[in-house]
Design a protein that fits this description.
This protein is an alpha+beta fold. It has 2 domains: about 5-50 and about 220-290, no CATH class; about 55-215, Flavocytochrome C3, Chain A, domain 1. Helices cover about 25% and strands about 15% of the residues. It contains 6 helices and 10 strands, in the order H-E-H-E-E-E-H-E-E-H-H-E-E-E-E-H. The radius of gyration is 23 Å and the shape is elongated.
């Protein structure tokens, strides 16, 4: 993909994307895609779309091999998001994490200041993933909500406290909490309701984690056929050119189910490798027969 290219992100994904953190290497700058397009390869897919997640707000611009994926913050279904205006802005419990995490990075990037805070109370602390326990984390704790909101950097504390209290009052506490299923424990009457796993924030200590958007890979790329051959704008395979993985377009649109990128790369990688090797052997035999 071109996720490490700020100019291409702004051009294809839209305004503000030059400000996103890059989860991985600084070298995925779209050079191969641009080179292929320059020789007539056909573009395809959701060029304005990408895989982007909640990522440590103060993480470096590009991925850190020593930390790896631990900058991600994926336990938001058990808590709430608050933005700089002190408002919730997304349904944290819309679905299981695997079906929302890759699109919520975009939502965070669209917030004022391109950041948000994830807030939890002690009732769900055991549910938080290991990434919340690393040293490289922007975290605040407090024994009261009044104290907590004052510690949220760059947030309207009064509005945040009002929002949290309104959220607490809207939780359907008569519905049992069950983190293993979409439990229907929701809020009602809010501008942005939570559909599942809605727990009141009422048990100290309270914790909050600052996050921004971390982009993983982009969805637009090269068109291939079932043999992983790169197709030209004329609709014909480009001889000797095969592609697989994130530089291929037309696989993901608007969202991404967790783990499917690995499946995509494995399946088309094997097809591309096998067909490229077959083509190379065929060309080698042809040259031997021709005496060249």
């Amino acid at each position: 993909g071109f996720q490490a290219n700020a100019e291409m992100r702004a051009r294809y994904l839209g305004p503000g994307w030059e400000l996103a953190k890059v989860r991985g290497t600084r070298f995925n700058t779209g050079d191969v895609i641009r080179t292929a397009l320059a020789i007539g390869a056909a573009p395809v897919g959701n060029w304005s779309g990408c895989h982007a997640v909640a990522w440590e707000r103060n993480a470096p611009e590009f991925g850190d091999l020593a930390v790896g994926d631990q900058f991600q913050k994926h336990s938001y279904p058990w808590g709430i998001y608050i933005n700089a205006e002190g408002k919730r802005f997304v349904d944290e419990g819309a679905d299981f994490r695997n079906y929302t995490y890759a699109k919520y990075g975009r939502v965070i990037l669209s917030q004022p200041g391109q950041f948000a805070w994830q807030i939890f109370d002690a009732k769900v602390k055991s549910q938080l993933r290991d990434e919340y326990r690393i040293k490289q984390v922007t975290k605040v704790t407090a024994n009261t909500l009044e104290e907590l909101v004052k510690k949220l950097d760059d947030v309207n504390a009064d509005a945040a406290l009002k929002e949290i209290k309104a959220y607490n009052a809207a939780v359907r506490t008569e519905i049992p909490f069950n983190p293993n299923v979409k439990d229907g424990r929701c809020t009602t009457g809010l501008a942005v309701n939570k559909s599942n796993w809605a727990n009141t924030l009422d048990t100290p200590p309270f914790e909050a984690y600052a996050v921004t958007c971390g982009i993983t890979f982009t969805f637009g790329g090269l068109r291939i056929n079932t043999g992983a051959q790169v197709m030209s704008t004329d609709g014909e395979p480009i001889p000797g050119l095969y592609a697989a993985g994130e530089l291929v377009g037309g696989i993901f649109y608007f969202n991404y189910p967790g783990g499917t990128g690995l499946t995509n790369g494995s399946v088309f990688g094997r097809i591309a490798g096998a067909n490229a090797a077959k083509a190379a052997r065929s060309e080698s035999r042809s040259k031997r027969v021709a005496g060249t």
